Amino acid sequence: MRVLVLHSHPLDESYGRALYRQTCESLTKAGHEVDGCNLYEEGFDPVLSAHDRTVYHDYPENTVLVKDYVDRLQKAEGLVIVTPVWNFGFPAMLKGYFDRVWVKGVSFDLEDGKLTPTLRHIKKLAAVMTYGATPWRAFLVGNPPKKIVTRVLRAQIKIGAPVKYLAHYDMNNCTDETRAAFLDKVKNHMERF
């Protein structure tokens, strides 16, 4: 299976980067063809410009500036998102990826006001997230990233596809042990993806 792994953390020597590397290594070990997409390293521009917004509904013109990313998404059979959660949301880099790449003609069609998902070729979805907040604080604010993955993105891929949400909460108070345990959990899940 071809798996697109999206990563959005700017620091090379971060725990987030270690999670991304572990995810890619474990998926490869499991026999998947991994397309590692590190948005910062690739210099992805997350800004939805006035032009981008003007042509947002005009496929394929809306994909011209992000054609490589669209092609990679359309070739994927699996999707894994590896990212920190900042202020109870995705980092601007990842949010911009969704705003600019998951456009009409790519992730959905829209006709007479009726939206039809078009990423049904993606058969599996997983997210590997880190939070500064505790699970309780994330719950109190509604945990938007979890809902986006387990509800919004789930609705756009193959109906009934398995979705896994792995989160290390309370990174502000983590230890070497909690980080190692979560890294091992990610390894085990990705080897069974």
From TrEMBL:
Keywords: Oxidoreductase. One of its GO terms (cellular component) is cytosol. SUPFAM superfamilies: Flavoproteins. Gene3D superfamilies: 3.40.50.360. InterPro entries: Flavodoxin_fold, Flavoprotein-like_sf, NAD(P)H_dehydrogenase_qn. The keyword Oxidoreductase applies. Residues 1-135 form the Flavodoxin-like fold domain. It comes from the Bacteria. One of its GO terms (molecular function) is NAD(P)H dehydrogenase (quinone) activity. Belongs to the NAD(P)H dehydrogenase (quinone) family. This is NAD(P)H-dependent oxidoreductase.
